[in-house]
Amino acid sequence: MDQFAGLNKQALGLWLDVTSRSVQSDGPDLTARQTALMLTVYLEAGPHTVRALAQRLGVGKPAIVRAIDTLQDVGLVERRPDPADRRNIFVVGTEAGAERLSTYAASIARNIAEITQVGRTITVDESDEAIARQKLA
Questions:
Q1: What is the CATH number of the domain that holds 48?
Q2: Strand partners, 91
Q3: How far apart are CA 50 and CA 52, in angstroms?
Q4: What is the span of the domain harbouring residue 89?
Q5: Of all helices (H) and strands (E), which one includes residue 89?
Q6: How large is the average pLDDT for residues 72-87?
Q7: What span, in angstroms and rounded, lies between the C-alpha atoms of 88 and 105?
Q8: How far is Cα 120 from Cα 102, in angstroms, rounded to an integer?
Q9: Cα gap 38→71, rounded to integer Å
């Protein structure tokens, strides 16, 4: 498994830790597509239409509609009519969605701080130990 040594292993370990915390939370268990859609809505300038989100993420409109439906059902995004043209619908973030992403971002920042320890890259053994500790937590 040499392809998972060094920086690759650290990056994947970070992803594992953050993903593990996400699925252990009380919130909904989101797919990668739903997470990407949510991050796009919150991090990139809008307005966000279904068509624009589908193009941005490189998937079909039906897939985006299903992802929006799920995210809206759990309160992480909302659909709002375009005030200039009520035929258009914008997808916008919610307070609950912002809180979830803030928690997710804090988890990522905490893991990065643990990994870098003031700019020092951890060894593979330290990474293995950190991953093992996370699994036991």
A1: 1.10.10.10
A2: 79
A3: 6
A4: 2-136
A5: strand 89-93
A6: 94
A7: 31
A8: 26
A9: 8
